[in-house]
Amino acid sequence: MKSAKTTIPATSARLSNPLDKQAIIRAVASSTAIETGQSIARIERKLRAGNSNFRHVTLAR
């Protein structure tokens, strides 16, 4: 049985696909809507707008 190795470039290429990005936005919006009671459409608009109060915050390394 062959093991499925995924390389970093292959992973990055998949994430750069606009359809995948839209699916991630939709998934995050629907999950957040369930938790907060807001509408999915409203949360999606906020995510797509890209306005964030925390742009200066980066992930820990």
Structure, explained:
The protein is mainly alpha-helical and 61 residues long. The chain has a domain at 15-49. The chain has helices at residues 8-15, 18-36, 40-49. The longest helix has 19 residues, at 18-36.
Give the H and E element order. HHH
Helical region count?
3
The termini sit apart by 35 Å
Summarize the biggest pleated sheet.
none
Q: Tell me roughly what share of residues is in helical segments.
A: 55-70%
Strand content: under 5%
Would you identify the regions where 5 or more consecutive residues have pLDDT less than 50? Answer: none
**Shape assignment:** globular
Question: What would the average pLDDT be, to the nearest integer?
Answer: 80
Q: How many beta-strand runs?
A: 0
Class from helix and strand fractions: mainly alpha
Tell me the quaternary state: single chain
> Nearest-angstrom radius of gyration?
15 Å
Keyword list:
single chain; 61 residues; mainly alpha; 3 helices; 0% strand; globular
In short:
The chain is mainly alpha-helical. The protein is globular and about 30 Å long.
Draw up the topology in text.
Blueprint: H1 8-15, H2 18-36, H3 40-49
